[in-house]
Amino acid sequence: MKQVTTEPRWKETFKVAWPLCLSYTPIGIACGILLHAAGFNSILAGLASVMIFSGGAQFLIAQMLTVNAPILTIILMLFFLELRYALLGSSLSKYLQGENHRFIFTFALSLNDENYAVNYLKFATDKNWSPKDALQVEHWSLLFWSVANVIGSLIGSALKINLEVVDFALTALFIYMIVMQVRSRLSLIICIFSGALAAFCLIITKSTLGLVASTLIASFTGYAIERYLTKHKPNSGLLNDLGAAGTSGPVVEPLEKKDESDSIL
Length: 265
Description:
Layout: H1 9-37, H2 42-51, H3 55-66, H4 71-81, H5 84-92, H6 101-109, H7 113-125, H8 131-158, H9 163-181, H10 185-205, H11 209-232, H12 253-256
Helix pairs in contact: 1-3, 1-8, 2-8, 3-9, 4-11, 7-8, 10-11
C-alpha cells in the first residue's frame, strides 16, 4: 500500500508566503536605505520594521523626518494611515473564532495588506487552512521584510544619499500608491480635492498639521458622498469605473453579477 507523506506545516506555509516574501525584498531594501537617510541606524530600522510592519507607514516616517515634521504630526498621520487595519482585521475575525486573546493580539501585530490578502484567499478557498497557518504566513513576511530593511540600512550606511533625491523618490512612490487605488470617478475627484485642500491647509496653518486636517476632511467628505450616492443614487456616474467609458452602474456591480459557476483557483 502506497504511503502518503506530508510535509511539515511550516514548509506548506512557506510555499504560500514565498512569492510575497520575494516581492518584499527589493522594497524592504529601498525602505531601509531611505530610513537610514532619515537618521535611522540599522538597529532602529530593524525595530521600526518589526514594530510598525507597514511599508507605507515607514516610507511616510522617512519622508516626514527629512522635512523635520513634529513628532505629534507624524504620530497622527500614522494613526489615520493605519486605521484601515481595523477593517481588514474585522473581515478575518470570523476565521479566528475560538482563539485566545494572546493569539489574536499576536496575529494583529503582524497583519498587513499583503499577508491579509494571501490569508483571506486561503481561508476562503482552503478548508484546511488554520489560524496558525495564517500566523506563520504573517511571520514569514515579517521576517523577510525586517531582514530586507536591515540590509537596506547597511547599504545606506555605505552610500551617500542626497536627501533631495529621497524627497523625489518618496513623492513618486506615494503618487504611484494613489494612482493604484483610484478606481472610480469619485475617488479621482476626492484625490484632486484632497491635494488642493492639503496645499490650502499648509498655507493657512504654516505647519504639517495641515496635512492631518486635510486628510480628515477629505476622507470624511469622500465617505459621506459615497455613502449618499450608494444609498440614493446607485447608478450615479461618479461610482463608475474609470476604465468603463459609456457604461452605467457602480464599480462593484460586476462583482455582484458574477456567474456562480466561476470558481477561485
